[in-house]
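Quick log. Single chain, no ligands specified.
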Amino acid sequence: MTDLPRRVTYVLPVFNEADIVAVFHDALVTATDERPDLAFEFVYVDDGSQDGSLDRLLSLREKDERVTVLSLARNFGHQLAVTAGIDAAHAAEADAVIVMDTDLQDPPAVSLELLQRWEAGADVVYAQRRSRQDTRFKRGTAAGFYWLLDRLAETPIPRNVGDFRLMDRRVVGEVAKYREHNRFLRGIVAQVGFRQEAVLFDRDERLAGQSKYPLSKMLRLAGDGIMGFSTQPLRLISHLGLLISGLSLVGIVYVLGVRLLDADDSVPGWAFLAVAMFFLGGVQLIVLGVIGSYVGRTYVEVLDRPLYSVALAARGTAGTSQPTSGHDLSRGAPLSPRDPHQEDL
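-> predicted structure:
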């Protein structure tokens, strides 16, 4: 009796990538064809695309039965789209999961190197960017973010690493337990632990389309990374308060010195008082904003709403696709592999 091949699931988030998804799939198939000893599944998660990406994905499924398509009910964001794919892979009990974007900036051939490290014993293999073909502004902001994260995060998170990585089934099982809404997946994987190794690669330019991470989304992701894995901002508020109190004492000493030692030169400091008032007012608003961000995150988690909703899922026998609520997946309760409805998920 021959052993069944190990199952590897690719989790592939898609948002408005109609022009490139077929090219990406061809490149991915070319790469994975080099490993006929493994059984592959390609889970494409359409994150509420509005450009026909879903139709292209369903066409891919008609040609390749290894393709699974999950269509979210609206745009939930990259991190939750990846989470939906990981939940589906966990439900199917894949031996390993590879997460990568579909814009061809993450070369599919590099995923084979991740597989080799996994087979050598690593539980997590993350693709670390040796170089990247991005704008100078994006490279600079990324460097600043990782510098800040290094100093604030209580869990060490590798630099120049995105979500392109391989996770063993044990790691996937642990990651599936994390159900926070404001997600920073690379931080979650780092916190889970296990044996983690890096594979260096050169990140390419986008083949088509535009980046789906404008400045506003990058800032939001950076906030999730810092606030999700550090309480340092709250402690920094106390340090800031002590600093301002110290400056106030210096100012009091200065004013008393002028009044007592050189009273004739003392001038009413209306400008100084006005600047001080505005400065302290701005500091107070910043402090309230930081505290409010933590309180808001707590409020969202207390509501305990599902992370995402699945409008359509096609999995298993080619041609099978059904609407589904996706409740079980979004709640983190994977179905048993023996469940007769699993292939419709």
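The chain is about 45% helix and 15% strand.
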